[in-house]
Amino acid sequence: MQSNIFHLHQHNSQHAELCNAIYERELALLSYANDDAERLRRKLRSLPFYVKKAGWWLIHAQSPLELDPQNASWQAKQRASPPKQSAATPLIKWIDQHVAPGLPLPVLVRSNDFVQVRLDSVDRVDYDKQQLHLNRWGWCSFAGQSLSAEPILFLKPTPALPLRELLLSALLYWPSFTQAMPPLQVD
To answer: pTM of the prediction?
Structure first.
């Protein structure tokens, strides 16, 4: 019983540290958003719920990466350069076998001289047209290319973030990336 008390205290302080870091980052992002006042109010009202949820999910996520609670981020050795597009055929085959709503996918985003990898999730799949819809970036072909004018390319996941991506990262099933973990139920 006594060891459980100390364990809970450690999780609570780590949760508080994570929440502070997430709040700081999200408020900075919201301050630069071009949202109207009503939309901004809705986002601010829901922020505490999602920040607390992200904090607990990150603490309980089963990941080979190290959680940095001071920055609310995953830490791992960084690649020297961004990932390159793989051959389309293996990606198409992998997507055809594993794609399903809820599957998290890394997305390579290019803008001017800036390149970053963001995490998004599949919310719709059209097998007939070999297309999938990413929650944030829209429709893409199974080859990874955007079907709109977005400068993106989704990548085949490899073990390798804003609030939305932190929540998605806690759902990754690290051994195979072919399915999402069930979300942690936090009261």
So the answer is: 0.50
